[in-house]
UniProtKB/TrEMBL annotation:
It comes from Nocardioides pocheonensis. Residues 9-457 form the Aldehyde dehydrogenase domain. InterPro entries: Ald_DH/histidinol_DH (IPR016161), Ald_DH_C (IPR016163), Ald_DH_CS_GLU (IPR029510), Ald_DH_N (IPR016162), Aldehyde_DH_dom (IPR015590). Pfam families: Aldedh. This is Aldehyde dehydrogenase family protein. Transmembrane segments: none annotated. Belongs to the aldehyde dehydrogenase family. The active site is at E234.
Length: 474
């Protein structure tokens, strides 16, 4: 579609504010066509042996790896992340697909056996049918495969809608995958929230998986309840980072700057809420600000750039609003706190201190290059501060004390807790949040289970005329 055509949805490069593509927003009728196409393919695909589904997924992974540089360049241009970071993401993309291919062939069900009434019982893993996938703008390619790979591996047909801001790598991914998949198994619709609502409301969509913010997740869950479809929600985060005095200040600060400002802080697991033990506070804050000053903000295509723009003008204004309101209630902005005077939606890496636990900038997700640093008297107070938010996605503990690590990984109320690191995931381990960060798991065998339904089959081999009550009956 031409960029200047009336009604076109325009995709913009956030580092230049210039249009790079345009597309037509899918209507409710377009969504229905995609769902009907998926439904027609679902039965055959669901009966395809797991080994054949796995072989196709492995070919898709190989093709992505062969074209990794083009994917990285496209992701960098559309999202605004440094091209070096986009390249670093690529191995995670094909690793998830290859893991899902293998997981499809492994049964996690209990062994068949005679559990009651002289009958033999076993479980069947079956696909749901048609699943709708709605992916975010911050990691469009990676979050796309986190959902597509297990959904297809489990035998479902898919309708996917990427964010209207960053559809480019998803378009390329679907085009590539459909070279190997049977027709109708993977379907793409481009659009905005109205398109997403049509997917969620469609009666033939048996599950919806969303990565997005909390308000969107609540709206999806409410709409999905009308048809009682399954919902998996990976929502926002406000990760507490507990830094203790025994953690080396300079190295910890260096690592946390990387984890706090990666992707311009537009990451639901970003190290954005640092809580430092009082004895180490001054030294850590000084070291942290020194490391922030070393960030190189600029053109994402420059290999020397370490931080790019935020995704849109709207996001820039949102981030700036949080910081200005924090200033208004007495917080100190030690570094940054302003839009950079250049083309593109660039906001300076920002460090905020002297904030109350109840303040907006602590309690709500900023989703930008803004990090708060608080001080805590001791382990107990730091833990209480960490858990005192509505989110429950991720947290980390920075210490050399093994006992403390064990206590805090138990007591932190978050779906993922790291020790002396942040952000990294493993395809073999589940990822998902607690509380307002949603429900459902991605990655691992649990991720495959999200896209499956399990049927108990109970067989009594012989019919008898015995009127005795059956064992195990209610």
């Amino acid at each position: 579609m031409e960029i200047d055509q009336p009604g076109a949805a325009v995709v913009v490069n956030p580092s230049t504010e210039q249009p790079i593509a345009a597309y037509r927003i899918a209507t409710e009728e377009d969504v229905d066509t995609a769902v009907q196409t998926a439904a027609a393919a679902a039965r055959s695909w669901g009966r395809t042996p797991p080994v054949e589904r796995a072989e196709i997924l492995l070919r898709i992974a190989d093709a992505i790896e062969a074209d990794a540089e083009e994917f990285a360049l496209l992701e960098s241009e559309n999202v605004g992340k440094p091209v070096t970071h986009a390249r670093d993401e690529m191995p995670w993309v094909w690793d998830v697909i290859r893991f899902s291919a293998g997981a499809a062939r492994v049964s996690h069900a209990p062994a068949a056996g005679e559990y009651a009434n002289g009958s033999t019982s076993w479980l069947r893993r079956e696909p749901l049918g048609v699943v709708g996938l709605i992916t975010p703008w911050n990691y469009p390619l990676l979050m796309g495969v986190w959902k597509i790979a297990p959904a297809i591996a489990a035998g479902n047909a898919v309708v996917i809608k990427p964010s209207e801001l960053t559809p480019q790598t998803t378009i390329k991914l679907v085009d590539l995958a459909n070279r190997f998949l049977p027709p109708g198994v993977l379907n793409l619709v481009l659009g905005d929230s109205s398109t997403g609502k049509a997917i969620v409301a469609h009666p033939k969509v048996r599950m919806v998986a969303l990565t997005g913010d909390v308000s969107t997740g609540k709206a999806v869950a409410a709409l999905a309840s009308n048809t009682l479809k399954r919902v998996s929600l990976e929502l926002g985060g406000k990760a507490p980072i507990l830094v203790f005095a025994d953690s080396p200040a300079r190295q910890t600060a260096r690592d946390l700057v990387e984890f706090g400002f990666a992707n311009s802080g537009q990451d639901c697991t970003a190290a954005c809420r640092i809580i430092v033990e009082d004895a180490a506070y001054e030294e850590f804050v000084s070291a942290y600000c020194d490391e922030v000053a070393k960030l190189r903000v600029g053109d994402p295509s420059d290999p020397e750039t370490t931080m790019g723009p935020v995704i849109s003008r709207r996001q820039l204004e949102r981030v700036a609003g949080f910081v200005e309101r924090a200033r208004g209630y007495g917080a100190k902005v030690l570094v940054g706190g302003e839009r950079l005077p250049r083309e593109g939606w660039f906001y300076a890496p920002t460090v905020v201190t002297d904030v109350e636990q109840s303040s907006e900038i602590i309690q709500r997700e900023v989703f930008g290059p803004v990090v708060t640093i608080q001080r805590g008297r001791d382990e107990d107070e730091m833990l209480a501060m960490a858990n005192d938010v509505d989110y429950g996605l991720s947290a980390s503990v920075w210490t050399t004390n093994l006992g403390r690590s064990m206590r805090l990984t138990r007591d932190l109320d978050f779906g993922t807790v790291w020790v002396n690191q942040q952000i990294y995931t493993a395809s073999e381990m589940p990822f998902g949040g607690f509380r307002d960060s949603g429900y459902g798991k991605e990655l691992s065998g649990h991720g495959l289970d999200e896209y499956s339904q399990f049927k108990h089959v109970m067989v009594k081999p012989d019919l008898t005329t015995d009127d005795a009550p059956a064992q195990g009956s209610p």
